[in-house]
Predict the structure.
Amino acid sequence: MVTYRKELWFHLNKRRGLVNITEAISEAVTESGIKEGLVLANAMNITASVFINSVEEGLHEDFEKWLEELAPELPYERYRHNTEKEKNADAHLKRTIMGRETVVAITGGKLDLGPWEQIFYYEFDGLRDKRVLIKIIGS
Amino acid sequence: MVTYRKELWFHLNKRRGLVNITEAISEAVTESGIKEGLVLANAMNITASVFINSVEEGLHEDFEKWLEELAPELPYERYRHNTEKEKNADAHLKRTIMGRETVVAITGGKLDLGPWEQIFYYEFDGLRDKRVLIKIIGS
Amino acid sequence: MVTYRKELWFHLNKRRGLVNITEAISEAVTESGIKEGLVLANAMNITASVFINSVEEGLHEDFEKWLEELAPELPYERYRHNTEKEKNADAHLKRTIMGRETVVAITGGKLDLGPWEQIFYYEFDGLRDKRVLIKIIGS
């Protein structure tokens, strides 16, 4: 059994945004040399998500609008978590809807994804350095 | 370390519906010969879910009504993703609530589920062939 | 490859509540002797969650209020699942938002968590014995 660990770092210059990390995770799988196994990719911060959906800008706008309806950023006083200094309660809730992590199969040395499956990092409280952890286990 | 891979195929004759796949995943575990490990089961399409809850028809109706409130199918113009041809934005959002995948423990050669835990495929945009991936890793 | 299995038992004296289980899972990792691998922690009941977020009481109150908005407990007749005897449909829906399980990396014999990541059990229908399953796989 072999394991492999890698971190991806992000610094978005806005509060919210999506980054396609499929290629970066695919590279980590190649680096690991693992042919059959599982890869875990998780946000290491609690105001960001790793999730799987399609590369379609209209859909990404729909996600943005929908999450804002389900867990509005404003007014800040809506949430007990928000203080003078911290104003990201909505980011904790939005990330809960989208999920912390995904587990993807590795088959024949490649990510075993469906035809439209792409892996995304979703930032809900940017403007600072944040990480995704990739942990691969297999043989 | 041993791995095993299997696909389950679905073709629902309606837009939305639930299929209990516990038995099919259980069979895959038996076929794998793996006694201790993990099984990943994930939708390979981005408008379907694999999730765990109970076999109770009333509850399944509650899920249906609740998801329709949280991410309504209509009006189609509500979503940027919807076009003349494609009208499944709600399916992408509903599947996000229910989740793409589940990871279940294997103990003593069997799915290590709680007493009421059953694994379901939830289709949100049917009337075509779609797949679930089962990947098992263990010894 | 080594695997390790452990159950955590809970009995909350109220309908809903959060329990920080990071330390208990960390102990299970130590007991397993596994240095590199993955740990799965999942609710074995379908009206409870295992999820990762921060230790912040204000935020936990925000989760409580938010989940009650997204999936209200009352009126009980709102849900088909509720009967004379069973009144926990909202618990099934709330747990769906928060998730059944989490998968966490193990690196150097420790849980590989981000600086604010803590693992919680979220009970949505307490006043009875319920379990979390920990399954560890690695070397």
